[in-house]
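Bumping with the actual sequence this time:
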Amino acid sequence: MIISKVEYTGFRDIGPGGCMRGSVSLVAGDTRINVPLTLPRKVEIDKSQHRLLLLAEALRQTRRMPEYRRKGSLKLAPELMKARKQA
């Protein structure tokens, strides 16, 4: 599956204990995988470094799902990689 779009939602409101909750959506064609994440401290979600860390964690969790466990089944689209390098 080639992921063509990544969306970040939430991660703005600080909840109990200073945690932030949100999700990373991995979109491939008409397939959307929402990965809920909880951050232990306030993170500036607008910084590309933090977005990449969230993306890495979402990919790690998705690769552990039985339907995506096959090695190499998840890849980022080349145009998405170019946009990441420019950011």
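The tokens above came from a reply further down the thread. Helices lie at 48-63, 78-86.
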